[in-house]
Amino acid sequence: YKSYYTHMVRCSDSTYYTGVTNSCERRVLEHNEGKSVTSYTFSRRPVVLVYAAEFTDVYEAIHWEKVLKGWSRKKKEALIRGIKKLWSFSRRENMSKKG
Asked: Which of 1, 29, 55, 56 fits 61 for a cystine, CB–CB 3.0-4.6 Å?
């Protein structure tokens, strides 16, 4: 199956950009290389990936992108913080299993 990602990057001016891609790694590189002068991120480089959600249906990814774009900055940051907390809990549990 093919994967699609709704991703969010934090720009150098602390704004957020949300989009859809089939490769977060490639897309962040493209943002940081400045492939398109007219891109929102062009003058706000470098960008850092702060959130990604995986979908198997491109239409679901596009729908989630539209939902996130409608959110306030506070709500986006709460989502990002929540994801980071989950990652830290996951890493801690994985580390304790190794020990």
From this structure: 55
